[in-house]
Task: structure prediction
Amino acid sequence: MIDPIQARVQAIVADIAGAHRSPRDAAAATPLGANGYWLDSIDLLEVVLACEKAFDVRLSEVDDLTPDTLASVGTLTDLIRRKLG
Amino acid sequence: MSYAPPAILFEGREWSSDELTGLALAWREAIASEVDRWPGVVAHAMANHPEAVALLFALSSLPAPVVLLPADLRGWQSSPPIPAGTPLFLPPALHALAVEGERLGLRSRPLTAPPAAVRARPAAFMTAPALVFFTSGSTGAPRPVSRTFPQLVNAGLAPMKAIGWPAQAKVIVSLPLDRSFGMHQGLMAATVLGRPLALQRRFQHHALLALFASGEYHYWAGTPVMADVLGRCQLPEDGPRRPPAPPFCIVGGRPSPSVGEAFRERFGVPLRQLYGTTETAAITMDAAPAPLVRPQTAGRPLPGVSVRIGDDPRTPLGPGTLGRVWVSTPGCTAGYGFPPALQRPSLVDGWWPSPDVGELDGDGILTLAGRLDDCVRTRAGHVVSPAAVASALESYPGVMETVVVPIGPSADPVLAVLLESARPLDIERVRDHLATRLPPWSQPPVIEQTRALPRLASGRADRLACIARLEHTR
Result:
């Protein structure tokens, strides 16, 4: 069963990527950028804003939002989970 | 007039002007003999970091032209390439760029921090013969554009003159300093004002909101996308419903009406467009009193700058007619390439042909309508901006996205539209909608709708597939 936080993150990402960019077999390991959802830097900013609103968390640009945490649905989910405590 | 590095607030630490001047002097001494002997340009990775600012001032006092590279050199390449063997000076914060510098054929020269603080003293900064920026690369590999330091100073001064020399102004910049817009509207604005600069390593909306909330800043330069994020991001729970913002918020580009409205609604100040190019620096700016600012227009020419519209600047078009934007400015580049081997820009009677189209109104206010490359010229000679047509179409309820392209023979093109809509639309009503928003020659003869535009793997609309479909329909 898919983790509820991951499901919500994945829904946010898919919404911003749109149906045409969302891989049919998307999973935790699906990259947010190339060879995955093909999100560019502006799309990623949209994902960050949407996650902050959906989970009521604040993601620090310096400490939280790194290439590693923005690598895939799974790494972003892990970041949100940590922020939720 | 001599200038010194401004004090910089960077990621919570204040770097004083004296500290940065001391660093610049120490690095100047460390590299002066090497630069004096070097016959060509020198390179500098202009990251948004105080050490990079200090090094720029050091290099600016030496006799070699300075080439400003981006801080992210991965995969970066210019046309023409930077001459092989060019020294790339790297302050401690940027030592990691040495490998990418070598990939570009540059000779990486890491600098160390001075062992002790160097006492600041007046120095002849900004006397180097040229500073080389690069074009954005949106239409090919980035192209080097040479500018002089007096031009740089004037480009920093002009917007300040237009807004009336704010005495206590502090400046915030979220833009990359290696680009002309960030350098002029950030570092140069603070330098010529002699006021502190809050420098962001990159756009960071929470940190920026905190700077806004301090109430200490007078001038922020960003992009429409940044303004969009600021206008709708989560605000701190314990903060005011209408947070403060600098009275002069400048964006280099045209924000959508909804972005302009959301920003004004949230912060109580308008977004002001500043129009400029790498070749000319700032051209126009909306410096009107706040209630009169119109974010959809690019304002009036800055002091010393003139704008004309048309095919030929010697016979300019009148108000309200779309055409190429021509610019006359003392800030125009000396040429493309690496000094001293420059390819002069093609001027007509001193007027520089910008790549943009726009129109002036009766009050001399410029409204931009996209790039000339993207425009279509009708058989009658009218210039039609597909971006303006798309903008008008996308304000029609139900239209999700449009592709506006010329079809048919290039000598007699026809403007055609493929619009994406989840539900069927009455095309005659769409035409009525356009008739109230566009001049007759901009009305597209061919409009077709689809539930899903043909798209590339990246998700962007596939223009060639759209053209094929529209040609077939026609």
Notes: Chain A touches chain B at residues 17-18, 20-21, 38, 42, 45, 49, 52-53, 58, 60-62 (CB under 8 Å).
